[in-house]
Design a protein that fits this description.
By secondary structure, the chain is of the alpha/beta class. It folds into 2 domains: about 5-120 and about 310-325, Nucleotidyltransferase, domain 5 (2-Layer Sandwich); about 130-305, ATPase, nucleotide binding domain (Nucleotidyltransferase, domain 5, 2-Layer Sandwich). It is about 45% helix and about 20% strand. The protein contains 13 helices and 10 strands. The strands form 2 sheets. The protein has a 5-stranded mixed beta sheet, with helices on both faces. A hairpin with a 3-residue loop joins strand 7 and strand 8. Helix 2 (about 45-65) packs parallel to helix 3 (about 85-105) and helix 4 packs across helix 13 (about 315-325). The longest helix has 26 residues, at about 240-265. The chain starts with a strand and ends in a 23-residue tail after the last helix. It binds 5'-O-[(R)-(carboxyoxy)(hydroxy)phosphoryl]adenosine and zinc ion (ZN). Zinc ion (ZN) binds near residues 113, 138, 278 and 310. Zinc ion binds near residues 113, 138, 278 and 310. It is found in: Cytoplasm. Its cofactor is Fe(2+). InterPro entries: ATPase_NBD (IPR043129), Gcp-like_dom (IPR000905), KAE1/TsaD (IPR017861), TsaD (IPR022450). It comes from Bifidobacterium callitrichidarum.
Length: about 350
């Protein structure tokens, strides 16, 4: 069979997206976001997001097909994010994808959105080398994976014991008064601050806890330390040096992620590190990973920003992997899984 053509559909959170991938080539990529509708509430409101998905689904899919100069008849398969994510949002994308699959007679794959975040790197850097390490940093996930054979053998090496890195940024951002999502605001302010201005702890890197959890992460202590510091400065009547707070936070988080990822590469004999997830758009993390990669002789594959945040290309690309690997399509009545574990690549 020639290289598969897959339509990918995404609706886990506040982005409705559709894309067409042919082999490892991106033919179209359409994203509609309801982010602005949530900003004034300080977080994603599931009911608003679900309604926005219902409105954007048909226009997004139609445009993705039109941009690729195709109709549904031209695709070999359809892939859709089946989880993890907001249940009502997933239900819209999955129901829509099932309708398209039923009407066109095409096989349908309900895929794991989080794994999609690393799969997408193939569009930019080509296939995964065997036995590689992957760092996933999204809003809800911070995990190190050992990808022995994509997509057949993927093991979790480490994960966050509490908050994800993105979550930690979003919480500190809220404290500093930035609108949702706060991560990009911290990034921007951090670019003008001193990363060593404030001492921010690096969770699970030292002593017994560090030894017991060499590849796990903990960011809730980081968040608490920054919050305490800000509160005590405010109580003392001092102005908060926002840029310095952001730079110190970003440096601490990026350093822990880069160190643990490099250690994992050493342990698993991988000279490639695949990075994905919304938080991989963070410029401090990107710089730190590239710097550490250079030092350790590891090629770091971080996708361009538009492929880091939620999109349909990641879903379509992962669909191509499943088709190529001969994985059976999902049953027509497969359910969504809002808490889909990393150990499950598809339904
Ligand atoms: O992967 P993603 O788009 O959504 C999930 O699947 O969870 O990740 C969203 C997360 C949010 O926490 C957001 O604040 C963070 O990624 N983020 C950033 C940046 N861009 C997005 N965090 C820091 N710096 C950025 N430039
Ligand atoms: Zn995501």
């Amino acid at each position: 069979m020639s290289e598969p053509i897959v339509l990918g559909i995404e609706s886990t959170c506040d982005e409705t997206a559709a894309a067409i991938v042919h082999g490892r080539e991106l033919l179209s990529n359409v994203v509609a976001s309801s982010m602005e509708e949530h900003a004034r509430y300080g977080g994603v409101i599931p009911e608003i997001a679900s309604r926005a998905h219902a409105e954007a689904f048909v226009p997004c899919v139609s445009k993705a097909l039109a941009d690729a100069n195709m109709t549904l008849a031209d695709v070999d398969a359809i892939a859709v994010s089946a989880g993890p994510g907001l249940a009502g949002c997933l239900a819209v994308g999955v129901s829509g994808a099932k309708a398209l699959a039923w009407a066109s007679g095409k096989p349908l794959y309900g895929i794991n959105h989080v794994i999609g975040h690393i799969a997408v790197t193939q569009l930019q850097f080509g296939a995964f080398p065997p036995d590689t390490l992957a760092l996933i940093v999204s809003g809800g996930h911070t995990s190190l994976l050992h990808v022995e054979d994509m997509p057949r053998k993927i093991d979790v090496v480490g994960t966050t014991l509490d908050d994800a890195a993105g979550e930690c940024f979003d919480k500190v951002a809220r404290l500093l008064g930035f609108p949702y999502p706060g991560g990009p605001h911290i990034d921007r302010h951090a670019q003008h601050g001193d990363p060593h201005a404030i001492r921010v702890p690096q969770g699970l890197t030292q002593g017994k806890a560090g030894a017991a959890h060499p590849y796990d992460f903990s960011f809730s202590g980081v968040k608490t330390a920054v919050a305490r510091w800000v509160e005590s400065e405010q109580a003392a009547g001092h102005d908060i040096p926002v840029d310095d707070v952001c730079a110190s936070l970003a440096d601490s988080v990026a350093t822990v992620l880069a160190r643990k990822a490099m250690r994992g590469c050493e342990q698993y004999g991988s000279n490639t590190l695949i990075v994905g997830g919304g938080f991989s758009a963070n410029s401090q993390l990107r710089a730190k990973l590239l710097e550490y990669g250079e030092k350790h002789g590891v090629e770091v594959r971080i996708p361009q920003i538009k492929l880091c945040t939620d999109n349909g290309a990641m879903v379509a690309m992962f669909g191509v992997n499943l088709v190529e690997a001969g994985v059976a399509p999902s049953a027509p009545d497969f359910a969504i899984d809002s808490a889909m574990p990393l150990t499950k690549v598809s339904m």
